[in-house]
């Protein structure tokens, strides 16, 4: 059995002295802003350490993680960019983890692991390591650091990703807040438990050590900040930052119209039955407060698409922040105007032992709040592709004589707005700064060969402003393996706005061009050497009537290959001739005539 990296290389440091000083009741704005930026920089340093140290490309290339810094009261001080609902889920996870362990049971240099889904707000493979940070003279932590990242294997019933679990105990090794580093020394019993329960122990433990390294950097950075400014001054500055965050968010909410609006969308199924799952939200704005209420959504289902409440909170926080304080680094104050209601035992508030592994429900649902508020906020865009239609590949590579698991988050078209087209081949809004995996990495790490990767003509929802176009990827297996199609919105279309057209949904076709060809959504299939899959992703929803689109923009779309000449004629009413000139079709001219007569 292979050995893990040096366990002492990334263990966090112990307590360090911090000078005491009497903090004024209020600090001046310049000092507060300087301290705030130091704390945000500490989170960014943690992020860079994780990316540079990780073993797994889903972390160092895809950026599948979330990093947060909390004060002594477990309130968010700063975070580094990462997956949207990871960041929001960390807020609940740190509270649940510290409650379970007890502040009195924590010591300098300790690190804990939490992946119990109903507390951590994610599935079991999104392991969160968190560490208390101590200063001399205090018996309880002065701050907390959290680093969550996707591990490739923790012993679930299926390799790669679990698509058909029916309870938590099929989804991997569970840690409810377990001490994995004690006083700066790694607890070998716990890391050996992980090693012997993982199909990919080197990758898994390598990423564990990368997360430890990030915690160590964060701890050192906090001590430097406290040493420079005095811990009382830093704590006062953070109080003022959180107060300001709340004030700015409430002001933004107060500028929105009061009222209550609903929206409904659909998840394909739960991979146990083929039944479509309804999700619904009622968003109520009253003064400077917003309530997001998921009452009326589906009860929890047998399959693994149920969401822990922390995950639901994460997606709502992301949507809320985009409407209120999108340009400000996050802190706890930004979310104080927000109330979230999800019935216990529903798909949005899963309880033990509900299966929660396939988190694509969160990806589909992240746009639901926007869909409701699009009825009154005209700046909101149409749906961007509906979900994140990626894939995973598993197998054994004879070149390295090693098993592999690789994943890719595929681009979709973003939705159009009232004044511009959607972006082409972008990551879904739920993925934030996440990236796709480069072809070079996929073919180096796995027995795969790409035959095509291209934008899909006519995949965008048409409109006065069209959505962005999606992506087609065709991949051939050079050795036997498995493919996991990862998508949960293939049966219903992404939504459009103001008379725009809805694009066709995403899909994967396995074994294309054969009598076995099969269109699938979330699906696992064995692949022989030479067999292929084609992944097609949805474009974005359109905004406005396509017949109102500027004909010159339609011509440019045809030249660029985003729209076919046939669609230009039949959908946009622009007939483009071989010499590049164009004329309006009768559909467009008749509509213009009707509009003028109504005026």
UniProtKB/TrEMBL annotation:
Region feature Disordered, mapped onto this chain: 1-23, 567-599
Residue intervals passing through the bilayer: none
Domain Hydantoinase B/oxoprolinase: 28-546
Residue ranges, compositional bias (Basic and acidic residues): 585-599
Family matches, as InterPro entries: Hydantoinase_B (IPR003692), Oxoprolinase-like (IPR045079)
Compositional bias annotation for Low complexity: 7-23
Protein's UniProt name: Hydantoinase B/oxoprolinase family protein
